[in-house]
Write a structure and sequence with these properties.
The chain is an all-alpha fold. 41% of the residues lie in helices and 0% in strands. The chain starts with a helix and ends with a helix.
Length: 80
């Protein structure tokens, strides 16, 4: 949801040329699926689209992106 909101804000401000934003998890148990329906519904109520395919963090992401944001300590430990 955080990536969807951030992408929404970027589009609103016309800054899409300056950012590449993606979302992924640190585990593999939802790979290929869609975002949680409750998150999709909550985002939709605020006018935010959530239409990504769930994937797991991969080593190449560490080179591809300048910043990785962990949403909690467990995810941070998994990233590290």
């Amino acid at each position: 949801m955080a990536a969807a909101i951030f992408n929404h804000k970027i589009r609103e401000r016309g800054l899409t040329a300056y950012f590449s934003v993606d979302s992924c998890g640190t585990s593999n148990y939802h790979n290929g699926g869609t975002a949680d329906p409750r998150s999709v519904q909550a985002a939709k109520l605020k006018g935010v689209a959530m239409d990504h395919c769930v994937r797991q963090l991969k080593a190449a992401d560490l080179d591809e992106y300048d910043y990785l944001v962990a949403m909690d300590r467990t995810n941070l430990q998994n990233i590290l």
